[in-house]
Amino acid sequence: MQPKKIEAYIDIVSAYSYYAFSYLRKNSAALKSAGVEVEFIPVFLGGINVSSGNKPPWTLPAKAAYSRYDGQRAQKYFGLKFNVPGFFPIVSLLPQRCLAYVKKAHPDKLEPLFDIFFQAMWVHHHDLSKPNSTKTALLKVFTGEQVAEIMAAAETDEIKKTLSATTLRVSQDLGAFGCPWFWVHDGKGHAEPFFGSDRFHFMWDYLEIPHTDLELVGPVPGKL
Ligand SMILES: N[C@@H](CCC(=O)N[C@@H](CS)C(=O)NCC(=O)O)C(=O)O
């Protein structure tokens, strides 16, 4: 029997991946006590779009206009505050390859690095497609020597192939058409996909974890 597990496929170029990452980390103790393992897995969202035939939502003007409301609401809900950087979107291959290497070579540093990269991109508006910005962010988690090692590894065929193989697997085998994408194992030998940072209540039902989110509190005294 497989354990209950959430495979979380995320890219730092995706604000919705940032929301999902923060939420899962905030709830890590509760998930652990419910016997659910969480694995964060770097993917290249641009590659998922190409492979699935999808287009980024902001390329459709109506979705771009709506996303301004949705983004503000999500930030309030998840307790984050940032503006979309002027350079958005970026080609996120460099930071995602660094993460793919760190996952292999320094697995205990993967979550801290995701956190620093998300903050660098969204809160501090550092363009992580530029090597100097990526190096500066890496230095918040690693020594100078390790940063050189990670930057060199990100240029190797092995790491390039690792990121593209994961990206291909999640889109072709696990049905992904965007990020964050989740492949969730129910602990009974089955697994299902979930898309987005706004589907955790369905995920908790699927995993049979008690939760209170989305319960209406009422009636409000004096209002009825
Ligand atoms: N409703 C989802 C939206 C997530 C979303 O729009 N993700 C973007 C990347 S940041 C994407 O890949 N979208 C593909 C699509 O909507 O088809 C959420 O709240 O998390």
Automatic annotation (TrEMBL):
Keyword annotations of the record: Transferase
Enzyme Commission designation: 2.5.1.18
One of the GO BP terms on file: glutathione metabolic process
Keyword Transferase: yes
MF terms in GO: glutathione peroxidase activity; glutathione transferase activity
Entry GO CC: mitochondrion; peroxisome
Active-site residue numbers: S14
DSBA-like thioredoxin domain span: 6-207
Catalytic activity annotation: RX + glutathione = an S-substituted glutathione + a halide anion + H(+)
Family, similarity comment: Belongs to the GST superfamily. Kappa family.
PANTHER family attached to this UniProt entry: GLUTATHIONE S-TRANSFERASE KAPPA (PTHR42943), GLUTATHIONE S-TRANSFERASE KAPPA-RELATED (PTHR42943:SF13)
Protein name: Glutathione S-transferase kappa
